[in-house]
Specification:
Elements lengths: L5 E5 L4 H12 L3 E6 L6 H12 L3 E5 L6 H9 L3 E4 L6 H6 L1 H21 L6 E6 L10 E5 L2 E5 L15 H21 L3 E6 L1 E3 L11 H11 L4 E3 L5 E6 H13 L1 H4 L3 E4 L6 E3 H12 L6 E3 L8 E2 L4 H7 L7 H14 L8
Parallel strand pairs: 1-2, 1-4, 2-3, 4-5, 5-8, 8-12, 9-11, 10-14, 11-15
Antiparallel strand pairs: 6-7, 11-13
Helix pairs in contact: 1-2, 1-8, 3-5, 5-6, 7-10, 7-12, 10-12
Length: 345
């Protein structure tokens, strides 16, 4: 076996959680998945996990906001906790900020209190977001062809960049981010924060307001309409799910050195893609152009975000290995082979 013997994955039936759970189970870990099954595709992911891993994997239906005793019990049996449970869409946070706060901020507080009260206090890696950096005040972007680029930041946005929470989602995740970091300082808990950029890959049931790489790919394959909010030249650094799994493994191996640290985890400057560039890529895979329509920009959207991942390279010994062309092709083929999971267009 390589890695921790027992792993608890919160939000483990979601896209990232399911892939992480499967990867640790394949390597020999006993995995417990905790999820409230509120996300599209969670039930399908749980069935897949059970069918693939049998007795090596236990699925617990629970909500982090209301499961303190359950969380403490599960943490007492874990060697590693990966916290991916959360509300994940900016647009949803704008329409229902209370629920967003209760899930992301208050829910993470409950997780931390359960960790603090547990006997074993296993390492915890928390899923934060690049949205904690807000609108990147002080950095300029400009158009270059079919994309935006950052001016004067060739390596992207580093962890030392000022936090500036935009949107209720940015606020709730930012509050959780800081709580996770501070519980390492104040209570000596072995926590690590991953500020993630856009993660994509198989088993991602992307929807219009979250998971844009998967959503565009699903829509293109199934013939659903695609709406671009803004001009389509928005750029993100994207990271294939297998590379994220390697980052988790690195954090678990190096926890004595990285506890209390915050890392940007994304594709970095070498793995960026604009919306229009993704559509071009999908058009080539489909053999025809992908039709789209345009609407106004959405609140809190960044024209460009690129993670500076040099700290993760130094601290975790990690860097991405799968570029956008290979990763998007893998995602496209998985969606095309599993069209039945996505219904009709």
């Amino acid at each position: 076996m390589t890695g921790p013997r027992r792993v608890l994955v919160l939000g483990g039936a979601g896209f990232i959680g399911a892939n992480v759970s499967a990867a640790f189970a394949r390597s020999g870990s006993l995995v417990t998945v905790l999820d409230n099954f509120s996300r599209p595709g969670a039930a399908a992911n749980a069935r897949w996990l059970r069918s693939e891993h049998g007795r090596r994997l236990l699925v617990v239906r629970a909500d982090i906001r209301r499961s303190g005793p359950t969380l403490r019990r599960l943490m007492d049996g874990a060697d590693l906790v990966i916290h991916n449970a959360g509300q994940v869409a900016v647009t949803t946070s704008v329409t229902d900020p209370r629920s967003d706060f209760e899930i992301n901020a208050a829910g993470t507080f409950e997780v931390l209190e359960a960790l603090r009260a547990s006997r074993r206090r296993p390492p915890l890696v928390f899923s934060s977001t690049n949205k904690v950096y807000g609108a990147l005040e002080g950095l300029r972007s400009r158009r270059r062809g079919r994309r935006y680029v950052l001016v004067g930041a060739p390596n992207g946005v580093a962890e030392r960049f000022p936090l500036d929470f935009h949107s209720p989602y940015g606020c709730s995740k930012g509050a959780a981010d800081q709580y996770v970091r501070d519980y390492a300082r104040i209570y000596d808990l072995p926590t690590v924060v991953f500020r993630k950029s856009c993660i994509y890959g198989p088993r991602q049931f992307g929807v219009e307001d979250q998971g844009w790489v998967a959503w565009f790919t699903i829509a293109a394959v199934t013939g659903r309409p695609i709406t671009i909010y803004g001009d389509g030249k928005q750029v993100r650094d994207i990271l294939y799910i297998d590379d994220l799994v390697r980052a988790y493994r690195s954090a678990a191996r190096r926890i004595d050195d990285v506890a209390g640290e915050v890392f940007n985890i994304g594709g970095g400057p070498r793995n960026t893609l604009s919306l229009l560039e993704l559509l071009d890529m999908l058009g080539r895979l489909l053999g025809r152009p992908v039709p789209v329509r345009y609407e106004d920009w959405r609140p809190g959207d960044q024209t460009v975000f690129v993670s500076d991942i040099r700290k993760a390279r130094r601290g975790l010994g990690w860097s991405p290995a799968i570029g956008p062309a290979r990763g998007v092709t893998r995602l496209y083929r998985w969606i095309a082979a599993n069209r039945g999971l996505f219904g009709r267009g």
